[in-house]
Amino acid sequence: MKVIENYFYTKSHEWIQLLEDGTALIGLSDYAQNELGDLVFVNLPEVGDDLIVGEMFADVESVKAVSDVFAPINGKVLEINEELLDAPQKINEDPYGAWFVKVEGDVKPETLLDATAYQEYLTELEA
């Protein structure tokens, strides 16, 4: 499974990319999209919605199941990736390019997994 070095992750398989302007992009990890299989639908929040750590903010539907996507940080949705609404398969094709939302918020890296810790977590799951 591909893990990007300078991203942060959660144990529920969301990733967070911190941007230079202080905002963050959030998406679903390669591991998650692989486990779900071919994605056929994605439901995203509205611009202006508040994200609360640990609460569902989106969901994805695959040929196997429907899965909730949880907020890894507190914040306000500044932008959604509308391209995913028409082409959810982009998450399968490029999980780290297919971000769900751009958020302005309170990013606390100490509450997240870095790439090394996430890779170790994935190794434990596959054992």
Automatic annotation (TrEMBL):
Needed co-factor(s): (R)-lipoate
A Pfam match: GCV_H
Cofactor note: Binds 1 lipoyl cofactor covalently.
Key words of the record: Lipoyl
Domain Lipoyl-binding: 23-104
PROSITE patterns associated with the record: BIOTINYL_LIPOYL
Signal peptide: none
Residues with N6-lipoyllysine modification: K64
InterPro entries associated with the record: Biotin_lipoyl, GCV_H, GCV_H/Fam206, GCV_H_sub, Single_hybrid_motif
A biological-process GO annotation: glycine decarboxylation via glycine cleavage system
A GO CC term assigned to this protein in UniProt: cytoplasm
Family the entry assigns: Belongs to the GcvH family.
PANTHER family: GLYCINE CLEAVAGE SYSTEM H PROTEIN, GLYCINE CLEAVAGE SYSTEM H PROTEIN-RELATED
Subunit structure: The glycine cleavage system is composed of four proteins: P, T, L and H.
Task of the protein: The glycine cleavage system catalyzes the degradation of glycine. The H protein shuttles the methylamine group of glycine from the P protein to the T protein.
This protein's name: Glycine cleavage system H protein
Species, as recorded: Dielma fastidiosa
